[in-house]
Design a protein that fits this description.
heterodimer, A: 579 residues, Rossmann fold, 3 domains, 6-stranded mixed beta sheet, 4-stranded antiparallel beta sheet, 63% helix, B: 595 residues, alpha/beta, 20 helices
């Protein structure tokens, strides 16, 4: 109920006209069968009288016109509704829901992306919006209520002749309602349980459609194995669904049976009353007409009601995501780093993991210090860097910029001093200009600045407004070129602190050397944190941090650490010996 | 839409499910016809019941007649109801199940045979995409749609027959009106479709911008850069134009719809007036009068369904053209020749290669010979054509000119499993499979899936043995999956190559995301491996090239220079320049540091 109210409230706030007019149609169409029944009773009665020569034509004409009129009104409203529903509820409503969701998603803490249950919920909520399920719930609810009212309306009209009619009318609806709701819940439950299998099935199928995986499976010869795995998974999923669907179909058969019995008894009842002369033959015609019009309306209604539980659970997913709280913003403005960044006993653990990724790190970074973090794969370098930038909050301990932690600062004033080139940098399918200036969007029109950053990383871009990337038919770049683009972006932002995580892994040696040299030059008066497997780079920074198992095990300059003969000396030696 | 192709398309929409579920498809056709024919009979029985009841009241005779027609009416209602409910559902389910079982298996088999180049052909993207997105379900929907067309057409004819009882002009009017109605509905659907087509790019753009706001790596950057608002605003502005356009077009399209509704309203007005006049002349019975008034509504909704299903059919039958296109995609042909002898020799004989749909050749006149037991390295700047050589050896593409031979047999003529004996590959963009660790490694040689010893050995050689237990689930697909770092994935990929018993191993940029110790250890392991097998190494980390017996330096698609490390250093060419550049990071004198 809460979920339904949620959708109605939002749609009435965002698009009151569309929501109102759509509702108006459904109100009318709920009353229509009842009105039609009353009018057709008179219509048929008069026709019978005219045929028997017992009445003049006038009344017949009036009721015939009335009959036409209510359908004309209904069609007019239906016509208006088809516009308000499609353009309003579905198009506009979905657009509003989508923007509300995405704006909220963007506010949520990044750490949530490490939480797989959040990722599942997020995917379900996004799917709910993309498949227009929130708007659907509005429409379906209106439809269901309107159908129920229309059945009751007809029943009440005929109850004048016999109270049994109400019972028979209910008999046609109630079993379906019960079965559909129960079955619908069953389906939702099974879908949830099967979600994992279904995802695997889809994943395996997609492997056959991607060039990268198809190349490997052909050359190595495991395509047959994967095909077999896919069939296995599919059979598991389908067998269960098939059983469920058969059961569903069977229970529908039972409902159909009950419904037909309801109809049969209503018809028989009316017929008996007609034969006994208790009601005129026109009522019988009207009853048949109403029942058959209800029958066809009921079919679509029943198809819809089965989807209700699913729709409601989609809305519940959407709501639960909106209730996820956004990051708090602080009040202190940040005016540039004066004393430095200090990490006090910082530990960090990813949600759902057993051990800390970063373990009691104490560290002070002076303004304008250039630091390299080295260490083997999985030693916690990237995580530490993200903690320093405030992208992940430490599980314990604190990160202080000039004595205050991240959440005490106004987020945007602090961010204005930070920049980063991350390891899995995005490849924006936008223009060259946007790819660079997205890091400092107010300088979007600063052509000379953009060109300078591009030049620094060795990109010659004659046309800044050229679309790049394959998705929107732009020029596709190689991995190395994308990496340069990411570097240009990081450099373009006029920051006091910059993080570079594996900035040159996809570049060839000639370019790598040139870019790193330029980069070190460009960050001359910045605080810089570099993560790299090219240990040779460390000779050129002010300070080296060596990490192992989440700890900082060594801290110092190239010569000192080399002389010490510890972890750093080992890392350096391993790489240098090949040259 | 011309008549002939429509019939063709309807035919093929039936033939596809027929191919996989003969009896069921036939049953569905028969069932559709029977249900369609039964509907007008229900109207007719209604008419007779009322007449009989009227007769009974007025003349008090013939109650048997009333009973007879009532039973028929109830029976036909039951029949239609069960038929369109239960039987229809079960038939649809059964057909879908068959298609899910056999049609998808066929599609999968076809995917396995398609020539590799098709996968990288952007123009085939839509076709492949559609085949990915539940094609069996779409085929079922298509069958249902064409059956709906059949059913509504028959029902329309049946209704016309009923109406002709009151006068032939009732029926004629109906038949005459149905054509302009369908045409008008078409017009309206066309306008909407056209707009949707034009907006599909904007739609994709909005979807893309949405993904930027909801995916981890982009969100991380956008948050830091404070540019979320820019993306949201950009999206808003696209969304606004799209919506405005849509609302306007909807209004325009609905005009036609209004005309067609008005036409039918006019027709029903005429019928009602006509009937009233007939009543006045005592030319109809009360039964016929009631039955006709009642059926006006269902005839109208039936006509709407007809035009709706025609439109549906038109958009859905696109699937068929993609499906046939898909089936017609070129397939790669497996050879039959076997390799003989223990040693392997791969020869590139004046090979030229240009990627499909491009102009500039990537490889020009490449010739070299590699034997098993040899260590060869290909080096060169980004885009020099190194990876293309790998793809040609793997038979993913065929050269434009020149030949590629393994033991003097052209590789096209070789049996794929023989090729696997000759080479195994670690691709640059190797697969990170969200499956078990065991499967990930065993993909190097799937026959060893249950051979724990060999798998463990291979993972040890690739230093992947401490990453995860063999039966642990890797990747993000399931919540209990272990997500590996780039370096860890790379080791798993390398373990694959160690598992395979091929004569030569091809490694394309194998150490890009490894830490220095892992990198160094891997080089050492290669050295062990190389003793028994040959190796083709592709890298821009030149330290690893030093290990090779022979180095080919590629530049602009040609072999620029070649020789051993010492020879190339002495030649002081491109290789020497690249090597010195890289080693300067480790030499004791500061080179090129301007800080």
């Amino acid at each position: 109920m809460k979920n339904i109210a949620f959708v109605f409230k939002r749609l009435f706030r965002w698009i009151p006209w569309s929501a109102g007019l759509t509702m108006a149609y459904y109100v009318f169409s709920a009353l229509l069968p009842g009105m039609a029944a009353i009018i057709s009773i008179h219509l048929f009665e008069n026709a019978a009288k005219v045929l028997n020569g017992a009445a003049p034509l006038n009344d017949l004409i009036i009721f015939a016109l009335l009959y036409l009129l209510i359908y004309l009104i209904n069609d007019l409203l239906a016509y208006i509704m088809s516009i308000t529903l499609n353009a309003g509820i579905y198009e506009k409503g979905t657009a509003y829901f989508r923007i509300e969701l995405y704006e909220h998603l963007a506010e949520l803490p990044l750490l949530l992306y490490e939480d797989s249950s959040y990722l599942d919920r997020r995917e379900r909520a996004i799917n709910a919006v993309n498949n227009e399920q929130l708007s659907s719930l509005f429409n379906q609810t209106c439809r269901v209520v309107s159908s129920v009212v229309s059945v009751l309306g007809v029943a009440i009209v005929f109850a004048r002749y016999s109270l049994w009619m109400i019972l028979f009318a209910l008999l046609t609806v109630i079993p379906y309602l019960v079965v559909r709701i129960l079955r619908g819940q069953d389906f939702t439950r099974i879908r949830r349980i099967q979600a994992k299998q279904t995802r695997k099935q889809r994943y395996l199928w997609e492997l056959f459609t991607k060039s990268q995986s198809i190349a490997e499976m052909r050359v190595m010869g495991f395509d047959e194995y994967l095909g077999w795995q896919w069939q296995l998974t599919r059979n598991q999923v389908n067998d269960e669904l098939w059983r469920q669907e058969k059961r569903d179909a069977l229970s529908l058969l039972v409902c159909d049976g009950i419904r037909i019995i309801g109809y049969g008894m209503s018809i028989a009842l009316v017929l008996i009353l007609v034969v006994r002369g208790r009601i005129p033959v026109g009522v019988f015609g009207a009853a048949l007409a109403s029942l058959s019009s209800l029958q066809s309306g009921m079919k679509t209604f029943l198809e819809q009601i089965g989807r209700m539980p699913e729709l409601i659970s989609c809305v519940a997913d959407y709501r639960s995501l909106l209730e996820q709280r956004a990051e708090k913003d602080g009040v202190a403005p940040f005016n540039g780093l004066k004393q430095g960044i200090c990490l006090e006993d910082v530990s960090f653990r990813y949600p759902g993991r057993d051990n800390n990724a970063v373990e009691s790190v104490n560290l002070c970074i002076q303004p304008n210090e250039r630091i390299a973090i080295v260490g083997v794969n999985g030693s916690g370098k990237t995580t530490l860097a993200k903690i320093i930038l405030g992208l992940y909050p430490p599980t314990s301990g604190s990160v202080l910029y000039d004595g205050l932690s991240h959440n005490e600062y106004q987020r945007d004033t602090l961010n204005a001093y930070l920049s980063a080139v991350i390891q899995d940098f995005p490849r924006y399918q936008l223009t060259v200009r946007e790819n660079v200036a997205i890091s400092d969007i107010k300088r979007l029109a600063d052509d000379s600045g953009i060109l300078r950053s591009l030049m620094d990383v060795g990109i010659n871009a004659p046309n800044l407004d050229e679309q790049i990337g394959r998705v929107f038919e732009g020029q596709e770049l190689s991995g190395g070129q994308w990496q340069r683009m990411a570097l240009a972006r990081g450099l373009f932002r006029e920051s006091a602190l910059i993080l570079l995580d594996e900035p040159t892994s996809a570049l060839d040696p000639l370019v790598e050397n040139e870019i790193l040299t330029k980069f070190l030059h460009a960050t001359h008066n910045k605080t810089a944190v570099l993560i790299s497997h090219r240990i040779g780079l460390c000779k050129r920074v002010d300070r080296i941090l060596v990490m192992r198992d989440g700890h900082i095990v060594e801290d110092g300059q190239h010569e000192t650490l080399l002389a010490k003969g510890g972890e750093y000396a080992k890392l350096y030696g391993e790489q240098a010996k090949w040259y | 839409m011309k008549v002939e192709p429509v019939i063709q398309r309807i035919f093929s929409s039936i033939m596809l499910p027929y191919k996989y579920a003969r009896t069921l498809t036939l049953a569905k056709i028969v069932h559709t016809i029977i249900t369609a024919v039964a509907a007008p009979f229900t109207i007719y029985f209604t008419q007779r019941v009322i007449d009989a009841a009227d007769a009974l009241i007025n003349t008090s005779i013939d109650s048997q007649n009333l009973l007879f027609w009532t039973v028929l009416l109830l029976a036909s209602m039951l029949f239609v109801s069960i038929g369109s409910g239960y039987v229809n559902t079960v038939l649809n389910l059964a057909i879908r199940r068959k298609l899910e079982q056999y049609m998808t298996a066929d599609i999968l088999a076809k995917f396995r045979r398609i020539e590799y180049a098709c996968y990288e052909d952007a123009s085939l993207h839509d076709t492949l995409q559609l085949m990915t997105d539940n094609p069996q379900e779409k085929a079922c929907q298509l069958l249902s749609t064409s059956m709906e067309m059949l059913e509504t057409t028959i029902s329309a004819v049946g209704a016309a027959v009923i109406f002709s009882q009151a006068g032939w002009w009732f029926a004629l009017g109906f038949v005459v009106l149905i054509f302009p109605m369908i045409w008008l509905d078409f017009k309206s659907a066309n306008i909407m479709n056209e707009m949707m087509g034009q907006q599909s790019k904007d739609e994709r753009k909005m979807q893309y911008l949405g993904s930027l706001l909801s995916e981890k790596s982009s969100l991380l950057e956008l948050k830091l850069f404070d540019s979320i608002k820019y993306i949201v605003d950009k999206w808003r502005s696209i969304s606004r134009t799209v919506l405005d356009d849509r609302v306007r077009t909807t209004f325009r399209a609905q005009r036609y719809f209004l005309f067609s509704t008005a036409l039918f309203k006019g027709w029903s007005l005429l019928i009602v007036i006509g009937l009233v006049l007939l009543v006045d002349r005592h030319a109809v019975t009360i039964g016929l009068f009631t039955a006709m008034i009642v059926s006006i509504g269902s005839v109208l909704s039936n006509s709407e369904r007809l035009s709706y299903s025609i439109q549906n059919f038109r958009s859905r039958s696109l699937l068929m053209s993609h499906y046939h296109h898909f089936l017609d995609l070129p397939e790669w042909r497996n050879g039959t020749q076997k390799l003989t002898g223990n040693s392997i020799e791969i020869v590139f004989d004046h090979v030229y290669f240009t990627y499909p749909n491009t102009e500039i050749p990537v490889l020009k006149d490449i010739s070299f010979t590699i034997r098993s037991g040899q260590r060869v390295a290909f080096v060169g700047v980004n885009g020099a054509g190194k990876t293309t050589i790998v793809r040609l050896i793997c038979r993913l593409y065929r050269p434009d000119r020149g030949r590629i031979l393994i033991n003097n047999i052209e590789i096209d003529r070789l049996d794929q499993s023989e090729l696997r004996k000759a080479i195994s590959v670690v691709f640059q963009d190797f697969g990170k499979y969200s499956l078990t660790m065991r499967e990930n490694i065993a993909f190097g040689d799937i026959d060893k899936l249950d051979n724990d010893q060999d798998i463990l050995n291979a993972s040890k050689l690739a230093m992947a043995d401490n990453i995860a237990p063999l039966d642990a689930q890797l990747g993000r697909l399931s919540s209990d999956g272990i997500d590996l770092s780039g370096g860890q994935w790379q080791r798993v990929a390398i373990a694959r190559a160690f598992l395979a018993d091929s004569a030569l191993v091809i490694l394309d940029e194998p150490t890009a995301s490894l830490d220095p110790i892992a990198e160094s250890n891997l080089y050492q392991n290669y050295a062990i491996l190389f003793k028994a097998r040959g190796c083709i190494l592709i890298s821009h980390r030149l330290a690893s090239a030093r290990l090779a017996d022979h180095i080919y330096v590629l530049h602009d698609g040609t072999i620029h220079e070649s020789g051993s490390h010492d020879e190339l250093m002495a030649a002081n060419g491109l290789y020497a320049r690249m090597y010195l550049e890289q080693s300067s990071w480790y030499s004791e004198k500061e080179a090129g540091d301007s800080s």
